[in-house]
Specification:
globular; mainly alpha; Rhopdopsin 7-helix transmembrane proteins; DUF6534 domain-containing protein; DUF6534; 4% strand; three-stranded mixed beta sheet; transmembrane; 74% helix
């Protein structure tokens, strides 16, 4: 058999009429007899080549960016698993509610990753080349969105607790953050429900209701991240004192706060922009799958960073030596004795704010212990 022309064709497996025509008509087959041997040649019409080109273009535009997003999400899940393992190794004495929360977040991330992979497998393997299927919203996509919403809710609850402690139980500030976190949860649930009531991507992208719920939900998440970071930085700056080492520790905590909040905020804004502008692509959904992984990792990173912060300042030459190696008379001339006791308690206090030293710590110490 020899093929006329240099182009090849990947024929859609579900197009039965195309296959029948391919086999039975002489438009494709040209049978000849050469020296007693039967041979035939195949000519590929331009229409068939156009079908392949169109199909591959749809796959690239619709599924390419989504597949990349899911790949990145799977990598981030590996980071989440590693951080979860590190947490239980480094902080076995943490309160049971906090350890339970970490476990629940990891379990939800595991289920979320499984459904992400199943969602991608259906589109790019099982129904590859099926334009009708690629235009439909597969049910597991809504499950991934729903799981991401609950993961975000868990992390936002942790952030709200931070704000409550650091702001000295400020009801207005805590209520403001809680309001936008509730918006993220409520509008996210609405988006997930609409993914089942609207069966096709084209219809889902063209209607106003999904645009409103996605923009309000993801936008609310971005506002929560910005508010939490701004609130923590504001109250930490107010807590600065005359101790250089303590100020350095506060500065390091502020850097961690800004970095974790900035990443999730940027991804949230990009999700809204891509959903509103890239109507023929599922790139926004790839970022949505990544977003839940970023929230889980920021939550675990803030917990695991406690030991790093302690080690960083415990190994410094100006954090403890000013207390341990200075003479008694010199130390008394610079700092009153009661302040020395409070300062040492801050060093050994549990960062979750659950130890017995809380009642003896100053307001500044409680703010620092409530951060992580």
């Amino acid at each position: 058999m020899h093929l006329r022309g240099s182009k090849t064709l990947a024929i859609p497996p579900h197009d039965l009429a195309f296959w029948v025509r391919f086999v039975l008509t002489s438009e494709f087959f040209d049978f000849t007899r050469d020296n007693g041997y039967r041979a035939f040649s195949i000519s590929i019409p331009e229409q068939a080549i156009a079908i392949r080109t169109t199909t591959m273009s749809i796959v690239d535009d619709v599924l390419g960016s989504l597949l990349i997003g899911i790949f990145v999400a799977c990598v981030l899940y590996g980071v989440t698993t590693l951080q979860t393992y590190m947490y239980f190794q480094m902080y076995p004495e943490d309160p049971s509610p906090l350890k339970t929360m970490v476990t629940v977040v990891w379990i939800m991330e595991t289920i979320h990753t499984v459904f992400c992979m199943q969602f991608a497998y259906r589109y790019v393997i099982t129904h590859f080349g099926d334009e009708k299927f690629m235009g439909e919203i597969y049910w597991s996509g809504g499950i991934t969105v729903l799981l991401g919403i609950f993961i975000t809710l868990a992390v936002h609850s942790f952030y709200i607790r931070r704000v409550w402690i650091v702001s000295n139980k400020s009801i207005p500030m805590t209520a403001l953050v809680t309001f936008f976190a509730a918006c993220r949860f409520g509008f996210g649930i609405a988006t997930s429900v609409m993914s089942y009531s609207i069966p096709e991507w084209v219809t889902f992208r063209s209607r106003t209701a999904p645009l409103v719920t996605i923009s309000a939900g993801i936008g609310g998440a971005a506002i929560v991240d910005v508010l939490v970071a701004s609130c923590l930085i504001y109250y930490l700056r107010r807590s600065r004192g005359s101790w250089e080492s303590s100020n350095n520790r506060l500065h390091l905590i502020m850097v961690y706060t800004v970095n974790t909040g900035a990443i999730t905020s940027i991804v949230s804004v990009l999700c809204v922009i891509l959903f509103a502008t890239e109507k023929g692509s599922l790139a926004f959904l790839g970022l949505v799958e990544i977003q839940s992984k970023l929230y889980a990792n920021s939550f675990l990173a803030s917990l695991n960073a406690r030991q790093h912060i302690r080690n960083k300042f415990n190994s410094g030459s100006n954090y403890y030596p000013s207390i341990e190696f200075s003479s008694r008379s010199q130390y008394r001339s610079t700092v009153p004795a009661p302040q020395v006791e409070i300062f040492q308690q801050t060093v050994v206090t549990d960062d979750n704010g659950e130890t017995d030293l809380r009642s003896n710590a100053s307001g500044k110490d409680r703010k620092m212990s409530g951060l992580v």
